[in-house]
Write a structure and sequence with these properties.
Blueprint (H helix, E strand, L loop, with lengths): L9 H14 L11 H12 L3 H10 L6 H4 L2 H16 L3 E3 L5 E3 L9 E2 L4 H4 L5 H13 L4 H16 L10 H9 L3 H14 L9 H13 L4 H13 L6 H7 L11 H25 L6 H30 L7 H10 L9 H12 L1
Helix pairs in contact: 1-2, 1-3, 3-5, 5-7, 7-10, 8-10, 11-12, 12-14, 14-15, 14-16, 15-17
Length: 357
Amino acid sequence: CYGMKFEIDVTNVAMLRCAAEYLEMTEEYGMDVSLVSNTENVLKDVFTDLKSTIQVLCSCETLLPIAEDLKIVSRCINTIACILCRSSSKCSLDTHGFIKLGDSNTNHEPEAITDWWADELLCLPVHFYQRVLQTIRSKGLQTGAIAGAVMHYALQFLKTLSSNGRNDSEHLQEKVHLLDHHHHRIVLETIVNLLPAEKRLVPMGFLFRLLWASRLLDTTIACQMDLERRIGAELDQTTLEDLVIHSSSCANGALFDLDFVHRLVVTFVQKNDDDIGDEDGDIPISPHLHIGSDASNSGSEMTMRKVSKLIDTFLAEVAADPNLPASKFIKLSDAVPKSSRIDHDGIYRAVDVYLKV
């Protein structure tokens, strides 16, 4: 390379930059033979293209900590975030949580994106992915777009735990035995931490899948409780199938984990009460305060009735378990406020099934 300029492969530029720093190949030996200058020039060109920048960032995985010291990693992350934020001005999420492109004010259906930037980021190790998402969030990218990207990354991860929809315990135990538990736990815990806190952004079925995976990998209690809190806060969006499947347990001979469902109900009731208190606090003082209060609370009452019906139906479903303790059956039925039951047909049916068994 002496006396001539040369091109550097994008996948090797970070390695060469680190080597140049270690070997002190600087300008004092001549501009044409300065590997530091050559690699820095290549990096400047790389930082104009999303895909090339991601390739360089991925190559830094084996070059730590020197790639950090030379700020190659931070420059890559900042470049990716800037490109995404500039390119995402027309990006949003549809009602099903999928990324879409287009003007939401038009009458035309937006074009669905299947291989956009969320797909480009799939190759990143989770610690780099976390930093990219945190940076684009700090730069103001839409929360919905962030949620969609995290879900896209998580779905790829979940495929490593199940294949062809098979979630049977024998197959899973066989597969989990072959996994790097520590690595997979870190990935899942990071994904959960990256999920936006806002409600209605992440589908309930997806949250249940994450909870299933967190139990399978024995993640931290904090991670599992965070998922339970998210699910409990939106329990009115949950289906009976989700509750039945994800409350399955073989502990103490019981077929269902009613303590888990009870925690969800308690979370929902507390969140519902807090929402009503906030709404009441926002209502201005007037002679017709009670009318405004009724109007503001009607939505909360509707969701509470929906959850009440769901839990009564769930109790009827699990009442056939001969090992179900009466104390847990009663505890769960009492967790729902009595005022939320329009009628008692559901709970009577559950009691009838339980007593017969």
